[in-house]
Amino acid sequence: MQQLIELITQLNTFDLIQVVFWGLAGVISFYFSLGNARVWTSISIGFFLIFIGQAYAINPYIHYYKLSAFHYIIGTLAVMLITHGFLEYYVFCKTFEISGQKIFVYLSTVVILAGSGAFLIVNPTPSPNTIRNIRMIENAIWVFLSIMNMEIIRKIYQTIKDSTISRGFIAFGIVFFFIFLWKGSELYLQVFQWDRDWQDIIAVMGDDSSDFDNYPLRIAFSESVSRYAGLLSSLSVGGTFMYIYRLLK
User: Fold this and answer.
1) Are 56 and 3 in contact (CB under 8 A)?
2) Which of 24, 80, 171, 245 would be 238's cystine partner, CB 3.0–4.6 Å?
């Protein structure tokens, strides 16, 4: 408990706001998945998993490498579930057909997470560089699926633009725009090996070949975009779920 309190006090204001608002969105989305139609289930569970990922920042066991790897797997699964959910919603808008039951989505999520956890347990502890690679894969998937989600959301909006809930999908589009900037700027830094994780790795290795110091302005700009876009994504997603909850209540 003392470790948890110390970690919370070490969080800066931006991180704390993100945890709070993703937590708000996570709670509403999980409740939302229980009390609404099957077509919302994948979307709601995906956003709830993002909250778990953000809450990882106040985890007292944050320095365990296997737990870090599992955290990034959760993030990857989250965006895949959300994308699947929006695709299902778009099909529903066109055909009014819903495939499967809620329990199937819940069980599939549990099975995938349990299988991923078992895979990490039976394998050697990943190195910091492996953790960085896993995080880069997660960011890449987020970037490309965020673009895909914005396009799906646009099509959903065009299909249901005369309904009251259509404004909620405009808000979702804004959320994914901020997520795209947030994850995209992180991915940009990772691709060019300008991210802080890589700097920590080469510091341990004693490698002085990094060109990190040659591009201070673009690195600082990308870090600022990541920081502020992450904040705006948390604020917008919290507001979006509160708004949609009011519309469907």
Assistant:
1) no
2) 24
Q: From the CB of residue 14, how many other CB atoms can be counted at a distance below 10 Å?
A: 13
What's the chain's Rg over C-alpha atoms?
Answer: 19
Q: In whole angstroms, give the CA distance from residue 193 to residue 197.
A: 9
Quote the distance between the C-alpha of residue 241 and its chain's center: 15
130 Cα distance to chain centroid: 20
Q: Are 155 and 89 in contact (CB under 8 A)?
A: no
Give the angle subtended at the CA of 141 by the CAs of 38 and 240, to the nearest 5°.
Answer: 50
**Side chain identity, residue 15:** D
Whether residue 43 contacts residue 89, with contact meaning beta carbons closer than 8 Å, is answered with: yes
> Over the stretch 50-90, which tens digit does the pLDDT of each residue have?
888 776 665 555 566 788 888 899 999 999 999 998 998 89
Q: What is the maximal distance between C-alpha atoms in the chain?
A: 61
Rounded CA separation 237/190 (Å): 25
98-101: Cβ within 8 A, 24+ apart:
98/37, 98/38, 98/39, 100/38, 101/38
Q: Tens digit of pLDDT for each residue in 85-126?
A: 899 889 888 877 766 678 888 899 999 999 999 999 999 988
